[in-house]
Amino acid sequence: MPGYIHCNLRVLMAERGLDIQNVKYQTTLSRTTISSLINNNSAGIRFDTMLELCTLLKCTPGELFSVRERGDVNRD
Asked: Where is the HTH cro/C1-type domain positioned along the sequence (predicted)?
């Protein structure tokens, strides 16, 4: 069974002491977009969105996203 892309935004924000409101005010992203990514409910992401998040969080796209196996119980 193929894996899936998991967004690690929730973990990265927690490590940096940020909440949705902080990210919203420090980027051009909407609360809805941030929430969708945090909850892994997004069907995709724009490159400019990824760039804003990586710039704010000082991370790479590879840190922002990871590949998970289907059935992975670690769903942070």
From this structure: 29-64
